[in-house]
Amino acid sequence: MSLSEQYDSFYRTALVKEELAEVHLHGWPKNRVEAILYSAGSGDALLDVGCGNGHLLYQLRNRFKKLVGLEYSAHRLEQAKLNLSDDAFVPVLGSAEDMNEIASDSVDCVVSADTIEHVPDVYPAAAELFRVLRPGGTLVINTPNIAFVKKRILLLMGRFPSTSQPNEGLGSDILFDGGHLHYFTFRSLSLLLESAGFAIEQSIGFGKLGRVHNIYPPLMSGGVQLVARKPA
């Protein structure tokens, strides 16, 4: 079974238009979707790398005129088409390492929620994120924080600090740790993006306790969020 087929199987559901819930941001972001909404801004064209069922694009539909969704799973992309059928949605089936269907310098903002850890080769993926953004455009990206205090405690106990599936990543027999292939800290994700040419503008910690997670994000935030810009 290919990796794309594994994802199709992992996320397999009946293809029926879903009633997506509206996410309202009140104060400091408490989860990965709220964190993206907090930083994404507005503009003409938005690209969501790893758009899944279109939930995040749905939240941003009134901020951007054009919604582009890149998804590796054909099944998930079909679901996104249904969910965003009333919006200016452009579906793109493919991988973050090769987004050749998307023109260079063509989008104002790229968002990516908990996707980079699934990408087999992160170096060309980072280069592609940089290529498709217009000069001065913004990237808002988040991923689980392997240096979060709870993960450190698990490692001290001799247990693998999995970031998706329970039982040390063995919660599913289809994808190990939900398909997570890489594990990031604030510093490692910053270094990856800077190597592709991005300038890091902001680091954000988020979680159920709001701003508490942003006191010292490398230790206190369950997720890494970076806001980066492609130099004009």
Write structural notes for this entry.
With 232 residues, this protein is an alpha/beta fold. It has a single domain (3-229), classed as Rossmann fold. It is built from 8 helices and 7 strands, in the order H-H-E-H-E-H-E-E-H-E-H-H-E-H-E. It has a 7-stranded mixed beta sheet with strand order 3-2-1-4-5-7-6, sandwiched between helices.
Feature tags:
232 residues; alpha/beta; Rossmann fold; 8 helices; 28% helix
Strand tally is 7
Given the helix and strand composition, which structural class is it?
alpha/beta
Would you tell me the overall average pLDDT?
A: 96
The percent range for helix content is 25-40%
Q: What's the overall geometry? A: globular
Largest sheet properties = 7 strands, mixed
Number of spatially distinct domains: 1
What is the count of DSSP helices, taking H or I runs of 4+ residues?
A: 8
Topology, element by element:
Elements: H1 3-10, H2 32-39, E1 43-49, H3 55-59, E2 64-71, H4 74-83, E3 89-93, E4 107-113, H5 122-132, E5 133-144, H6 149-156, H7 186-195, E6 199-204, H8 217-220, E7 223-229
Parallel strand pairs: 1-2, 1-4, 2-3, 4-5
Antiparallel strand pairs: 5-7, 6-7
Describe the structure concisely:
28% of the residues lie in helices and 22% in strands. It has 232 residues and is α/β, with parallel strands linked by helices.
